[in-house]
From TrEMBL, chains A, B:
Organism lineage: Bacteria, Bacillati, Actinomycetota, Actinomycetes, Kitasatosporales
Protein's name according to its UniProt entry: Fur family transcriptional regulator
Keywords, sorted A to Z: DNA-binding, Repressor, Transcription, Transcription regulation, Zinc
UniProt key word Plastid: no
Top-level taxon: Bacteria
Source organism: Streptomyces enissocaesilis
InterPro entries: FUR, Fur_C, WH-like_DNA-bd_sf, WH_DNA-bd_sf
DNA sequence: ATCCTACAATGGACTTTGTCTAAGTCAAGC
DNA sequence: GCTTGACTTAGACAAAGTCCATTGTAGGAT
């Protein structure tokens, strides 16, 4: 059973077939689906689910902090259910493969006060880009 | 006279009124305009310039390495003429204001081999998010 | 078990951002 | 001052996402 689903249920989320399906589709590690991919997989399980519902549901999961929105390429947003553990992303510039990574240290400490322009910084997003082993050997 | 324009001229770029206007619009520090904003400002100087030309011209500047493409929000790409000096971005989550910042240290060294999954990493992109002084006092 | 009602889902129109193409225009070399 | 290939144009098209009026339903109340 889906961890994600459990967590959502525990928050008094009204449970519907559509929401269940979206949560099931998203469950797992190194999952970074676009909204359209989520929709495609959801349709396989529940043919009448609409695109708008998928967008709404993903948006709510993000608001609840149970799913993270990631923009690794400049096209569609991707949704990452691994919201517990802070992590960053490593992206293959050729095939677009994405891995979750856990750098050591805190990038926040790398930004001196003089470079903060009076901002209160709450979050840092890091994206590493390169070539994955598969594309490198091709 | 525009620095950017000088550099482009020096590369044997065929100079046209449209390209000149786009380069002029982009010149400066902490400039991070969307393609549409560039178009709007370009139209003010040269009413008959088309959207496609603005997109083409920006794309060429990016290919030439004279302008950097930035995706700080999840909407339109932004164009940053400060391509000389490596830098990262600091974004206000409320008003969207963007500043160029220069963190100390190299985020690449923070990623242990065990977290590289065999990738050859070529680039790191860091986005700091927070609240700017103006929004904080509102 | 059934009813209510607020919340959720639907689908289709609309918006935003960006790309493509065919035809016309023009900068720069000769 | 020609010629030519590169540049520009307008508008059609596409992808990703939002909005809204209508219909459906989960889950508490009876």
């Amino acid at each position: 059973m889906s961890d994600l689903l459990e967590r959502l249920r525990g928050r008094g989320w009204r449970m519907t077939a559509q929401r269940r399906v979206v949560a099931e589709v998203l469950d797992g590690d190194h999952i970074h689906l676009t909204a359209d991919e989520v929709h495609a997989r959801a349709v396989a399980k529940l043919p009448e689910i609409s695109r708008a519902t998928v967008y709404n549901t993903l948006g709510e999961m993000v608001s609840l902090g149970e799913v993270i929105e990631v923009s690794t390429d400049r096209r569609a947003k991707r949704y990452d259910p691994n919201a517990h553990r802070p992590h960053q992303h490593l992206v293959c510039a050729q095939c677009g493969a994405i891995r979750d990574v856990h750098p050591v240290g805190d990038p926040l400490t790398d930004l001196p006060d003089s470079e903060r322009f009076g901002f209160t910084i709450s979050d840092v997003e890091v994206t590493y880009r390169g070539t994955c082993p598969h594309c490198a050997s091709a």
